[in-house]
Specification:
The protein has 15 helices and 9 strands. The protein has 2 domains: about 130 residues, no CATH class; about 180 residues, Aminoglycoside 3'-phosphotransferase, Chain: A, domain 2, CATH 3.90.1200. About 0% of the residues have low confidence. By secondary structure, it is an alpha+beta fold. The longest helix has 21 residues.
């Protein structure tokens, strides 16, 4: 009789149209997937690994990774799944992997995405500037295959924060990143920064709402406002500061959306995520004054205020629409046109 795990894997394979139970070796799975167009390869692999996650079969998963990346070389003593994500640029199955020497957090990126390139560039060029300011998990090793790159970060024990503690923690991270930018301006000016680190328009929340904005506004006005933002000062930006990435003891993880984005981008995203998570304060301008006036240079303040309102308008466009916050959204846009 087939084991329960084998039955679940078989059903998963049938669902993604791979192979039947008698041909479920990782080699056969990958052979059927890689004949598809690239996006379909990624989709099929993501669906399949979600089912492996449900079965909890870490041994099968390990053999699948070895098939995907034949150069994978890590002496695994033990491994366990530690949750799943929702992004489209990686497999949404994460593991804690232990060797005889160290514990790692394992994450697999699709090579079609720029996310691993962001992470690698950050560690090569920026990480030393952040040491002593807050904790970032170090990238310890990575292995590149045709479809995916398997990464291993140092494994950190994370303590989540809620409510006002989480809010103040997120605010502090955004202040610190602005401070690092100011402290290292000369170094940044010498760097050759790739275009993908400058393109805030590709940020997942920005790109998600642009089509809706095009249909709802005088788009020429919006483009004029966007151009003003695009030409403003750039600062070191994490891009996804929220309670699932910002932890106690100034620990900030998941730098997949890192870049050099216009001032105000980070802060607007922080406030947007606080609203999504239940914050009921709606006086954004006052919130900015209270939390940032003492930290942003006078010469940056005007751009900071304008850009923060612009990005909050974009990030929250659908959220405001869906949660009967039309007046708040309208007020944001009015401020931008003043």
């Amino acid at each position: 009789m087939l084991s329960r795990i084998q039955q679940k894997i078989s059903r998963a394979l049938i669902k993604v149209k791979v192979y039947n139970q008698k041909k479920t070796s990782p080699d056969k799975v990958y052979e059927s997937i890689k004949s598809k167009p690239l996006l379909q390869q990624e989709k099929s692999l993501n669906e399949f690994t979600k089912y492996i996650l449900k079965t909890g079969d870490v041994d099968y998963y390990q053999r699948l990774l070895q098939t995907l990346v034949p150069t994978l070389s890590i002496d695994v003593a033990s491994a366990c799944f530690v949750g799943n994500g929702i992004g489209g640029s990686s497999l949404n199955t994460f593991r804690k992997v232990s060797t005889n020497k160290q514990d790692y957090f394992e994450k697999i990126y699709f090579n079609s995405s720029k996310d691993f390139k962001r992470i690698h560039w950050l560690h090569e060029n920026i990480l030393n500037m952040m040491k002593g300011t807050f904790v970032v998990p170090n990238l310890k090793n990575y292995f590149v295959g045709d479809l995916v790159t398997i990464t291993y970060f140092e494994y950190l024990s994370l303590t989540p924060l809620d409510g006002i503690e989480n809010e103040q923690n997120c605010i502090q991270f955004s202040r610190l990143l602005y401070g690092i930018t100011e402290k290292n301006q000369k170094e940044f000016q010498k760097m050759i920064v790739p275009d993908y680190l400058l393109s805030f328009k590709n940020h997942f929340q920005y790109a998600k709402n642009i089509e809706s904005i095009k249909k709802s506004l005088n788009f020429k006005v919006f483009l004029r406002l966007e151009k003003r933002v695009e030409e403003s000062k750039r600062v070191l930006t994490h891009g996804d500061i929220q309670k699932t990435n910002a932890y106690k003891d100034l620990t900030l993880i998941d730098w997949d959306t890192f870049g050099f984005f216009p001032i105000g981008f980070e802060v607007a995203f922080v406030f947007y995520r606080l609203l999504v998570d239940g914050k009921d304060e709606m006086d954004f301008k006052n919130w900015l004054e209270v939390n940032y006036k003492a930290f942003i240079k006078d010469e940056d303040w005007e751009s900071f205020i304008f850009n923060s309102h612009f990005f909050l308008f974009v990030f929250g466009f659908q959220f405001f629409q869906n949660n009967n916050l039309i007046d708040f959204k309208t007020d944001l846009f009015k401020r931008l046109k003043e």
